[in-house]
Write a sequence for this structure.
């Protein structure tokens, strides 16, 4: 789960809380009462569900085509959300973590674009497309990596140690990895293509 000191900013201004399956336990630990729990419920016990009798539950079969995360994002959108922040997005399964990033990439390319911020442990990831920049105040030396998720990705950034000005980032290279915040406001713009901004906030 996201480090405690990073969680509070993610909860600011949140109007709808949707727990994806075992996310109900994380929500409870944060003192949140979800508006809805969705998923196949394979990560929840009946005891946990019984401890939250007033929470609406939408149960799906385990043999389904969507991840619980996709169901949760869709449910949030149906309730009027214009952006989603996912807490606990990265766990010990690489396939699930990669899928979460690709799900965010697909949402970012929608019409209109739907921003999804992924946070887990001390990591944060945001997918940017033209017109949806990333901006944050980051301490000096915070690791910031820029990864192309499509061909033709070009990025421009300010507030980083190494200059990024209309930089072409081919898919599958390490060119944009392990840059660092200079200290203060970091602004990253995707000039073309699909760009993932991955921030390591430190322990």
């Amino acid at each position: 789960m996201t480090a405690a000191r990073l969680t509070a900013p993610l909860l600011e201004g949140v109007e709808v809380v949707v727990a994806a399956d075992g996310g109900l336990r994380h929500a409870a630990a944060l003192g949140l009462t979800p508006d809805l729990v969705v998923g196949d419920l394979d990560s929840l016990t009946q005891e946990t569900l019984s401890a939250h009798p007033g929470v609406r539950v939408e149960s799906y079969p385990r043999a389904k085509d969507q991840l619980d995360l996709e169901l949760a994002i869709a449910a949030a959108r149906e309730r009027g959300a214009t952006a989603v922040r996912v807490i606990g997005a990265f766990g010990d399964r690489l396939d699930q973590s990669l899928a979460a990033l690709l799900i965010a990439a697909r949402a970012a390319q929608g019409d209109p674009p739907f921003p999804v911020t992924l946070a887990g442990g001390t990591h944060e990831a945001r997918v940017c497309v033209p017109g949806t920049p990333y901006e944050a105040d980051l301490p000096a030396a915070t690791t910031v990596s820029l990864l192309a998720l499509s061909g033709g990705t070009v990025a421009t950034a300010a507030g980083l140690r190494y200059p990024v000005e209309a930089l072409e980032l081919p898919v599958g290279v390490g060119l944009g990895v392990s840059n660092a915040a200079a200290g203060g406001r970091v602004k990253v713009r995707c000039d073309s293509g699909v760009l993932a901004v991955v921030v390591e906030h430190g322990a």
Q: What stands out?
A: The chain has five helices and 13 strands. The helical segments are 4-11, 23-29, 46-50, 68-78, 94-108. The two ends are 13 Å apart (CA to CA).
